[in-house]
């Protein structure tokens, strides 16, 4: 790894502790350095992204992995807020959820999600899907790097 390569900064918005643990393992076992930040619901995600209160020093994520079905503020609302915000809308959002309904898929893309991935039930498939997301967003695409303060 060269000195000018930045770790991939990922915000994981997920309320299922088992899924979080699995995602942390997959991201830790990957050759590309990453910073994985986790919030358990949509309200916390918006606070993190807006750097409110306890998140005043939160980094700007390069990628957001977003579950749809969460307490308080669900992923659909979070996606709408992100893509309506001039400062946040450029952050890629991958919806990673158990739902495979046509309505959720269509509405997520309609709200400008960058990708929609249905969580596989099988553990090996789940890990493979996450690894592919990690590989694509960490190696294949070129992401904007903004070190400037927001606000």
From TrEMBL:
InterPro entries assigned to the protein according to its UniProt record, in alphabetical order: CheY-like_superfamily, Sig_transdc_resp-reg_receiver, TCS_response_regulator
Modified residues (4-aspartylphosphate): 67
Keyword terms of this UniProt record: Phosphoprotein
Gene Ontology process terms (BP): phosphorelay signal transduction system
Domain Response regulatory: 9-134
Top-level lineage group: Bacteria
Name of the molecule in the record: Two-component system response regulator
Organism: Virgisporangium ochraceum
């Amino acid at each position: 790894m060269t000195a000018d390569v930045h770790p991939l900064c990922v915000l994981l918005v997920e309320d299922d502790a088992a899924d979080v643990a699995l995602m942390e393992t997959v991201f830790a076992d990957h050759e590309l350095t990453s910073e994985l930040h986790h919030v358990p619901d949509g309200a916390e995600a918006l606070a993190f992204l807006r750097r409110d209160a306890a998140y005043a020093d939160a980094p700007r994520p390069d990628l957001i992995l977003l579950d749809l079905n969460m307490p308080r503020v669900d992923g659909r609302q979070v996606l709408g807020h992100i893509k309506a915000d001039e400062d946040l809308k450029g952050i890629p959002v991958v919806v990673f959820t158990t739902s495979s309904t046509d309505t959720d898929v269509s509405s997520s893309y309609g709200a400008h999600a960058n990708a929609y991935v249905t969580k596989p039930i099988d553990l090996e498939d789940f890990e493979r899907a996450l690894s592919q997301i990690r590989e694509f967003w960490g190696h294949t695409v070129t992401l904007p790097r903004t070190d400037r303060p927001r606000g």
